[in-house]
Amino acid sequence: MEENKSYFSELTSGVKTLAIGLKTTLKEYFIKKSTEQYPENRKTTLHVAKRHRGRLVFKRNEDGSYKCTACTLCEKSCPNGTIKILSEMREDPETGKKKRHLIDYQYDLGDCMFCQLCTNACNFDAIEFTNDFENAVFDRESLVLHLDKEVYDGGSLPNLIDGGAELTIGKFNTKTK
Q: What confidence score (pLDDT) does residue 152 get?
């Protein structure tokens, strides 16, 4: 059986709820806010964890060649088909045996889940995730990268691969309002 509440008890309950909300709002209003000045001062104070997964890149040898052998293990391990590898069989002039040759390594950054299954599946240690996170573009087509044709230079921020600026606990690049 439902208990019928009177009009005035419902009204006092509503006013009490409103007072609790106003108290919370006023308390937050008088607390000093801090804003990190990201785009302006990012080169000096931005710290990114080394383990952050920002985008996939090819690891290169000292001579600039890539380690990928087009085995397609990374393509098969990718859960949503972000990686597409195009390869062909070519005869090696030295040994005379046929060997798989990479033609195109296509990686769609916009569809990637950053799960790192592709790097775990790679037996040749040919790909890795960097902590470069500034990948905003206006055209979705420019998020499709051809890793075999581009050479990753470390991103737009200094020391980004090493984590950016040094992390100092308790000191932030902030402006209080």
A: 84
Angle at 60 between CA 140 and CA 149, to 5 degrees: 40
CA 44, 45, 47, 53 dihedral sign is negative
CA gap 109, 70 in Å, rounded: 19
Tens digit of pLDDT for each residue in 119-151?
A: 999 999 999 998 888 888 999 999 999 999 988
Strand partners, 60: 66
Per the CB < 8 A criterion, the answer to whether 101 and 33 are in contact is no
Q: CB-based contacts of 152: which residues, under 8 Å, 6+ apart?
A: 57, 58, 130, 132
Pair 165, 171: CB distance under 8 Å: no
**At a CB cut-off of 8 Å and minimum separation 6, what does 128 contact?**
56, 57, 59, 119
- In sequence order, the β-bridge partners of residue 85 are 105
